[in-house]
Amino acid sequence: MACILHIETSERACSVALSDQGQVVFHKEDLDGPHHASILAPYCDEALSFADSHAIPLDAVAVSQGPGSYTGLRIGVSTAKGICYARGAALIAVDTLQLLCVPSLLSEAVEEGALLCPMIDARRMEVYAAIYDRGLRTLRSVQAEIVTADTYREWLDRQPVYFMGSGANKCKTVINHPNARFIDNQMPLAKHMMPLAEMALLRGKTADVAYFEPFYLKAFEAKESKSPLEHVKR
Question: Which element (helix H / strand E) includes 104?
């Protein structure tokens, strides 16, 4: 197990956590932002001071890679890179949509056989979303979508689908299938990054500190199309 500093700035919330030996030992968050530019550096300083005061060497910095806000991700990634260079630490990129699923999976709130569809708001009825199974295996990779009542019908006709995140909050009145489940007030936070970051480090999946770029929310180019089930991997 490693000591990892976790940074999450993809949306309005700004949060930092420190994990060691598979346990979160420090976390701090501001949910009323965006105040990333003013508070992220002090939060990171507090987390690193905690590690130093407990003689815990830093092994890696995990940062949310998006999709998300351009400004938020830029601040988070540049801060993470700076710490990696200063401390000689590895950089781990954590998928923001997978991160959104972690609280529900840890609480065992998702029923057996169900799918997860985390969504990031991209204005109007537009979202960035992906579909995962309960093991966070990708069944449909992230794509931009204009949400209608039929957008996820082929998935919903077969099994329950849990929708979560800022994009899901505005879709409740549109997605009215009986198999649709909505998890309210779920946002990506640094304190939930540890399982994903630990797994990435264990598998040797680190990012190039010099060249890594996050997945910004770009100009919207969604199509109202269905997702082919031939991409499902079980």
Answer: helix 96-106
* Mean pLDDT score, 53-73: 95
Is beta strand 161-164 parallel, antiparallel or unpaired with respect to 115-121?
Answer: parallel
**Alpha-carbon gap, residue 15 to 188, rounded angstroms:** 9
Q: What angle do CA 148, 73, 123 make, to 5 degrees?
A: 25
In whole angstroms, give the CA distance from residue 71 to residue 9.
9
pLDDT recorded at residue 181: 96
Query: What is the spatial distance between Cα 93 and Cα 111, in angstroms, rounded to a whole number?
Result: 28
Beta bridge partners, 6, equal 17, 62
Model pLDDT, residue 224: 46
- Confidence (pLDDT) at 230: 34
Give the per-residue pLDDT at 125: 80
Using CA atoms, how far residue 20 sits from 195, 205, 219, in Å, is 12, 19, 38
Local structure of 206: helix, strand or coil:
coil
Tokens of 142: 């992230």
| Token code pair at residue 151 | 């957008």
Give the residue among 129, 120, 158 at the shortest CA–CA distance from 12.
120
- Interhelix angle 194-202/96-106, nearest 10 degrees: 110
pLDDT band at 38 (very low <50, low <70, confident <90, very high): very high
Pairing between β-strand 3-8 and β-strand 60-64 as defined by DSSP bridges = parallel
Give this prediction's pTM. 0.90
Q: What whole-number percentage of the chain has pLDDT above 90?
A: 82
